[in-house]
């Protein structure tokens, strides 16, 4: 395999040339990353794809993990639909049986909606988690799968599953085993309303019927996320929006806060709500950046404690790829929406760290897990959680936002 | 707080002087560690103790975590019972209300036996896990609590709980939510039969009735552990003793293998089974040592992959305190039982690494979590899992084994 070196844009270039350089860079790297997955991940035999790929694309686990599988089907469809150069038979040819595999095998005891966390390559369930994330990425995949071929059974599945997830979150979670035992401190993880807002965005996209159906849920998601803003954006709060005692209650997850902020920004954009936009930039982007960025080595910490105790998570000081992807999108989007040059500066800083540390110079795709000082902790390119998702999504969105910024400059000439 | 420097025994001293030096070292350090917990952890108001203590003993979380709480009550009682210099009112005075707190508040919905993972300081349940480890250390605490004051309600609780745990493991685990969903690859974690064998040992100790009652369970535990020995000691196998597909199936946990080996050694000792002893030393001590020890930086890795893929756990290359504690006990015990000097050499090597890296030279107690190169990853002295347990147990057992070795040398003079 050849070297995949790529020169980074020079941040001293300002405005137009810098935007153009980053846009080219994102596009080129997006192509490279997608080629890794099309070359190595597809299961020609049973459909769908494998996510457990080593540094050079070797399969190290034949189980199919539902989170990365749902993400990859969704990502292939979205690229096929929305990016001209990805409208290729290769992507559709993998996404179609991938969607079929999911609709047939993801649910543990169909017609019940609970999905597996992992299944064998031919679809027998292996593990089930007490969360709603397998189901969420299943929903995303189903909706995207419907958008590319308009087979209604996929959209029906997406809507039914989302409605079930909402029921678990807002009415009764016993199917997830969340409420099997009485608990006084029932916590809400920021990932949950963020995931719901993400799914609402997905289903509402250019769809008037769904926009109406999920308008109330959208408001609910925004309000739930905003409740996590206390002294800082806290990762866990009580169901009635209060702080929680102990280390869990003080936990900050900078990547999760910024990801939530990105969905809030999109909402503020749609609603033309500049007050929300400014609040989000201030509290969900800049605040987690300042508390979460490692001033010594660079990169986002995985966890911080709001009172500066040592976070109790073993991986607290590791640098993970996805918060960096979400931060690039969020800061570029914030800059595009507000024109604040501070946000562009931070985008450049995060992008430079990310491309210098997470990219592999020898083989394609990114590392996902670095230790504090930026060296590689796990050399895998995919695993139980990491698949073809966060970095291609980031590059596709950045390419698109940068394109729009360049167009604006052109138009104003 | 003063400095807690301590000179390490010189390994070039052989035999008697080295044993004596290590024995003195263990005794002194055991006293130091216990003084940390008696000074900082006790809850005078509601009884029991807190485990979330920072580097210098400050409380960073007022929730009570049931694993370290059960362990601490058990450890205090055992030291009080078995080590002359710990027969102090201070230890009993903390263990009694600690046991009372557990019997009143550990179970989530008494009389059902499922225990919480964490409770508020006054005993309201907060979190519940789908495992049996809270219940196991509860059992240990109840049995020890009974041994120091002979209040039968504690022993009744211990026996009832152990019987329930056995029911979950061997008959029906639905109360733990293990079998809520059908699974083809039901896995057995090596920690489960190891925990059961540990509890059997605990209840059988100098108790003929219990020795009889749990004789069959003891055999079962030994046989289940031995089934994990395949190409190496595998952390996860199927319920019928077969290897499992994927990364989980290839997972090795050197600390867990050595801990299991230590309980097998004790069993071989009791039964006078030298064939089992030799097999255990070879496969459960030396094999995990050779595959699990980091030849470059020293210390045990947390996880390894039997085919040398990168383990999928984020903390795979971290060095945790407890495997080092278990290894010191196991290799010293193996040496004492077999006379093989290789095992003594490894004990010295592990002990030297452990005392150089996990001990804090400024404040008392040990760090629990180092990064690969031996630097401190989390500076906490206690947390959700780490409490007053593995290192005092290690030092108390090593002190005792070394004492017996010295006595043997005296006797043979």
TrEMBL record, chains A, B:
<comment type="function">
    <text>Catalyzes the interconversion of N-acetylglucosamine to N-acetylmannosamine. Involved in the N-glycolylneuraminic acid (Neu5Gc) degradation pathway.</text>
</comment>
<dbReference type="Pfam" id="PF07221">
    <property type="entry name" value="GlcNAc_2-epim"/>
</dbReference>
<comment type="pathway">
    <text>Amino-sugar metabolism; N-acetylneuraminate degradation.</text>
</comment>
<dbReference type="GO" id="GO:0050121">
    <property type="term" value="F:N-acylglucosamine 2-epimerase activity"/>
</dbReference>
<keyword id="KW-0413">Isomerase</keyword>
<dbReference type="InterPro" id="IPR012341">
    <property type="entry name" value="6hp_glycosidase-like_sf"/>
</dbReference>
<dbReference type="GO" id="GO:0006044">
    <property type="term" value="P:N-acetylglucosamine metabolic process"/>
</dbReference>
<protein>
    <recommendedName>
        <fullName>N-acylglucosamine 2-epimerase</fullName>
        <ecNumber>5.1.3.8</ecNumber>
    </recommendedName>
</protein>
<dbReference type="InterPro" id="IPR008928">
    <property type="entry name" value="6-hairpin_glycosidase_sf"/>
</dbReference>
<comment type="similarity">
    <text>Belongs to the N-acylglucosamine 2-epimerase family.</text>
</comment>
<comment type="subunit">
    <text>Homodimer. Forms a heterodimer with renin and inhibits its activity.</text>
</comment>
<dbReference type="GO" id="GO:0005975">
    <property type="term" value="P:carbohydrate metabolic process"/>
</dbReference>
<dbReference type="InterPro" id="IPR010819">
    <property type="entry name" value="AGE/CE"/>
</dbReference>
């Amino acid at each position: 395999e050849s070297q995949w070196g790529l020169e980074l844009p020079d941040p001293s270039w300002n405005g137009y040339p810098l935007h153009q350089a980053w846009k080219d860079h994102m596009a080129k790297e997006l192509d490279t990353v997608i080629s890794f997955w099309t070359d190595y991940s597809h299961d020609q035999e049973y459909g769908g794809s494998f996510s457990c790929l080593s540094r050079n694309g070797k399969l190290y686990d034949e189980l199919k993990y539902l989170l990365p599988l749902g993400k990859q089907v969704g990502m292939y469809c979205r690229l096929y639909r929305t990016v001209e150069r990805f409208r290729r038979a290769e992507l559709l040819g993998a996404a179609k049986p991938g969607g079929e595999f999911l609709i047939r095998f993801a649910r543990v005891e169909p017609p019940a909606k609970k999905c597996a966390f992992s299944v064998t390559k031919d679809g027998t369930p292996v593990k089930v988690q007490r969360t709603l994330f397998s189901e969420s990425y299943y929903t995303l995949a189903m909706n995207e799968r419907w958008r590319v071929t308009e087979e209604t059974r996929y959209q029906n599945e997406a809507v039914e599953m989302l409605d079930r997830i909402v029921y678990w979150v807002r009415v009764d979670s016993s199917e997830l085993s969340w409420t099997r035992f009485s608990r006084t401190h029932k916590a809400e993880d920021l990932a949950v309303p963020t995931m719901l807002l993400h799914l609402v965005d997905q289903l509402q996209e250019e769809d008037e019927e769904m926009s109406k159906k999920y308008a109330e849920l959208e408001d609910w998601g925004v309000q739930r996320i905003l409740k996590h803003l206390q002294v800082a954006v806290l990762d866990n709060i009580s169901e009635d929006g209060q702080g929680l005692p102990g280390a869990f209650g003080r936990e900050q997850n900078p990547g999760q806060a910024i990801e939530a902020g990105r969905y809030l920004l999109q909402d503020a954009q749609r609603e033309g709500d500049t007050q929300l936009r400014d609040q989000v930039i201030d509290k969900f982007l800049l605040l987690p950046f300042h508390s979460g960025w490692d001033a010594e080595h660079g990169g986002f910490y995985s966890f911080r404690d709001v009172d500066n105790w040592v976070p109790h998570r073993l991986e607290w000081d590791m640098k993970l790829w996805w918060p960096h992807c979400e931060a690039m999108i969020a800061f570029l989007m914030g800059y595009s929406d507000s024109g604040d040059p501070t946000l562009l500066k931070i985008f450049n800083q995060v992008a430079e760290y990310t491309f210098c540390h997470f990219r592999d110079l020898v083989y394609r795709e990114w590392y996902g897990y670095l230790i504090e000082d930026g060296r590689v902790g796990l050399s895998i390119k995919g695993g139980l959680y990491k698949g073809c998702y966060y970095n291609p999504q980031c590059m596709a969105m950045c390419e698109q936002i940068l394109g729009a910024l360049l167009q604006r400059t052109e138009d104003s000439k």
